[in-house]
Specification:
The complex is a heterodimer. Chain A is an alpha/beta fold. Helix content of chain A is 22%, strand content 35%. The two termini of chain B are 29 Å apart. Classes of the chains: A alpha/beta, B alpha/beta.
């Protein structure tokens, strides 16, 4: 085995050193881990809850060796995780997968739900390098909008748009709604997105109609994380190894699955 | 011609090269298998398919070891009825033989899955009688010559395509199940499946795999697998053997052929070199055969037994 894969894929136990509540359903957990501290925006880790489960999580931030992941409570494993406090031991392997490319010029980031986490990491990285960052974030309701303060600080005035389904904050609409207007009005050198796949699909349609470049981070069921087991296939691609970030040309090859189907734990196709 | 140099016949199958995708790696979708063929595989083996769908075990299902991987996936598969659609699709896009891996909890189940797979278009079936981590199937069958014979005979009487039996290394003498399989009608043997293994985390004092116990693959098991192939060839001079276990590069592939394998299977090596590993192994084997003046890859099979 090559030293690098063995190092990255080996299970390291580490302590949770910080837990922060971001919203009623999302908490951020920070831990120290050398290989994971080299993660780039878009990459993910496999986090082991000893005796419970192992789950894929996008990296939300790396600073001074401290690695942060934001976790939404959606099932048994994430519920267990939400009960963890600083001092709890978890296992980590990774980072895995590719990362968003670093674009210059004017960029637009669009997120939904916990998809905001990797895009915040990306926005932080790009803020020093790009001319202008615009960010559109959507959530169901006001208190589920993530990282508003951080994103408000990174984006210049009027370039941070928020939407909520119930209109409790920002515009009352789907996150994709202000996009058509924005894309027609302004020039962007790159568009990045992460969030629910139906949203990603809609954004892909909007960027395709205008022949705009897009990078989207996708999610699938994952087991091995290293491209062997085939659980996370979309078309000919493995989300864990060929992704999780896919460009417009790659998305064009998987339109019959994007937003429609994925593989279930038994390998059969199920709706996303 | 270059393709002739590597082409082989294996239990009635015609392969452009001897590098086959091992079962369990990718293989749910036809497109994942297509990608492996693009990477240079001479044939592909599907995930192990049973009568009913199985979701497999909870994560962690794979854990890194010093020189290999330990896995306990738990035979996740959509069941043969759903998988038949994938087999049919495979037959329209794959230009290499498709071998469908089959498991069951009885001889009847093996036979019924194998029959459906062949009817859907499988070019051969590989009987998984060696999975080390699911009860009442796999190795529990492969370790009993009597059960193994029953399974092979039943499948043999149900399908007309070649039957390959994948053996477990977790036995005191692999030639015993090998003989039982061949006498019951196996057309070829794959040696070997993973070695029983586990991983424990000392910090939390917990086993890492959710299923606790699993099977080891990768470079760590190569010398063990090589010996298994050599032992089988000594006892059974004629049966085609597919060498499997820790083949990471062309040198490993050549060594398995020298020990008696007509073809080889690749799995864990994909973690390192990705699906192009088939091309790089084939290229290496080809230049070895050319440099040594053997003329064909078939000429190196068994050579270690004559020296």
């Amino acid at each position: 085995m090559s030293t690098s894969l063995t190092t990255v894929n080996s299970m390291r136990t580490t302590e949770i050193v910080q837990v922060r509540t971001e919203s009623p359903s999302v908490k951020t957990f920070a831990f120290l881990d050398k290989p994971c501290s080299k993660a780039k925006p878009g990459q993910f880790i496999m986090l082991w809850l000893p005796g419970i489960d192992e789950i894929p999580l996008s990296v939300m931030d790396v600073s001074n060796g401290l690695v942060s992941v934001s976790v939404k409570q959606v099932g048994d494993a994430t519920k267990h995780m939400h009960n963890l406090e600083a001092g709890a031991t978890v296992g980590v392997r990774g980072p895995f997968g590719n990362n968003f490319t670093e674009s210059r010029g004017k960029v637009l980031l669009i997120s939904g739900g916990t998809g905001t986490a990797p895009l915040l990491f990306l926005a932080k990285q790009l803020s020093a390098k790009t001319e202008r960052i615009s960010f559109v974030e959507g959530a169901k309701t006001r208190n589920e909008l993530l990282f508003i303060k951080e994103l408000g600080g990174i984006c210049k005035e009027k370039s941070f748009i928020t939407t909520t389904d119930d209109g409790t904050y920002g515009l009352q609409c789907m996150v994709t709604e202000p996009l058509a207007n924005l894309l027609d009005k302004e020039q962007f050198d790159m568009i990045y997105t992460c969030g629910p796949e139906v949203m990603v699909k809609k954004i892909f349609e909007l960027t395709e109609q205008r022949k705009l470049p897009l990078e989207a981070s996708l999610e699938r069921l994952m087991r091995c994380g290293i491209g062997l087991c085939g659980s996370c296939m979309i078309g000919k691609y493995r989300v864990c190894r060929d992704g999780p970030v896919f460009n417009a040309a790659q998305l064009r090859e998987v339109t019959d699955e994007l937003g429609y189907s994925k593989l279930g734990f038994d390998g059969s196709r199920i709706p996303v | 011609m270059e393709s002739n140099l590597l082409s082989i016949r294996l239990a009635g199958l015609q392969l452009d090269n001897p590098a086959i995708l091992a079962s369990g790696i990718l293989g749910y979708s036809a497109e994942s298998l297509y990608r492996v063929v693009k990477g240079g595989a001479g044939a592909v083996v599907s995930k192990s398919i049973g009568v009913e769908p199985r979701v497999g075990y909870a994560n962690p299902t794979v854990v890194q070891a010093e020189s290999g991987l330990i896995n306990a996936m738990g035979l996740p598969n959509p069941g043969i009825d759903v998988y038949c659609e994938e087999i049919k699709y495979c037959k329209t896009i794959l230009k290499v033989p498709l071998i469908v891996s089959v498991f069951g909890y009885s001889a009847d189940e093996y036979a019924s899955v194998a029959k459906k797979a062949v009817e859907a278009g499988a070019d051969a079936v590989e009987l998984n009688v060696s999975c080390p981590h699911v009860k009442q199937t796999g190795a529990e069958i492969g370790q009993s010559p009597k059960l193994l014979s029953e399974v092979v005979e039943k499948v043999k009487s149900s399908v007309s395509k070649p039957i390959i039996v994948k053996l477990s290394p977790n036995v005191s003498d692999i030639t015993v199940p090998a003989k039982a399989a061949v006498e019951a009608g196996a057309d070829a043997l794959t040696a070997v499946n993973t070695l029983k293994a586990m991983a424990i985390d000392h910090e939390t004092t917990k086993p890492i795999l959710s299923h606790v116990k699993g099977g080891l693959s990768g470079a760590a098991i190569k010398p063990v697998a090589l010996r298994c192939v050599y032992d089988i060839r000594e006892e059974l001079p004629d049966v085609p053997i597919i060498g499997c276990g820790g083949i990471m590069d062309w040198r490993d592939a050549v060594e398995f052929m020298l020990a008696g394998a007509s073809a080889i299977q690749i799995g864990t090596a994909i973690a390192l070199e990705d699906t192009e590993v088939f091309q790089s192994i084939n290229k290496g084997v080809e230049s070895y055969v050319r440099k040594k003046g053997y003329g064909s890859v078939n000429k190196i099979v068994n050579l270690a037994h004559h020296s």
